[in-house]
Amino acid sequence: MTKTYFDLKTCAIFSLVTLFTISTLAQTNLSRKKADQIAAAELQTQMELQKPKAEAEWAAHQIQYKNFIMKFTTQIFGDKPAGGRSLYISLHGGGGTAPRVNDQQWENQKKLYKLKEGVYFVPRSPVDAWNMWHDYPMDELLTEVIKSEIVMDDVNPDKVYVMGYSAGGDGVFQLAPRLPDYWAAASMMAGHPGDAQILNLKNVPFMAFVGGKDAAYHRNELVAQWGKRLDSLQQVYPGNFTHETHVYPDMPHWMNRKDTIAVPWLASYTRNTLPKDVIWIRG
């Protein structure tokens, strides 16, 4: 039932009600072929329902959730694969500072990484705060991004990645474990882990970068410790907690683009839609 489960997971991105409906039907001794047909039809229905909203968002270059508005830009690289494009959500730095500073960081993030293939999606945080990428309603906004990207740019839901620099790295530390069923892999650059739930990354490949001289908020020490924790977890759970940690001894907060090696690393992973088991700790 692997293919059917893939379809169910894709439907679940759009609606938990849809997932429940199809799962209920699957209990009535449906054949694999029939279950696949039902899942595909329901997915198409959900995509058609999402399309008007997505088209309006893309025309305005912004997504709204309640009274929060998140502007964004997209760039498309390479030819579309048969299974759909990859999606890289790239979170800018800044934080609790003047809006013009965060605007500048947003502009910088747009140029920071280049893809061989995929959609490079760069949002502008709807707030100017230290926790801009992991406070309410960021989970809801990013799930809307994924739904609309599936509709607008034919994104493959199994090739969705999250990455971010500085305050964006703070966001990746939080969002990768909080939404582990959405990501194929994640990459954190120059951020701070805070109270992120590392155990939730059992099935999410995670890459981390920091400059050895990036001592503000003890980033250099804490990222190195995070890597060692993942080393230990990988020994306890062989085949899980896939990761790489890069601490560049002579680098400050800006790592002079050494972190760009994350892009091909991320691209090598596909979302595990049917893991053998999961660890979930609610933050």
Automatic annotation (TrEMBL):
The keyword Nucleus is annotated on this UniProt entry: no
List each copy of the Dienelactone hydrolase domain by range.
Answer: 146-258
Q: Which superkingdom is the protein from?
A: Bacteria
Q: Does Hydrolase appear among the keywords? A: yes
* Protein name stated in the entry: Dienelactone hydrolase domain-containing protein
Question: What is the residue range of the signal peptide feature?
Answer: 1-26
- Alphabetical UniProt keywords: Hydrolase, Signal
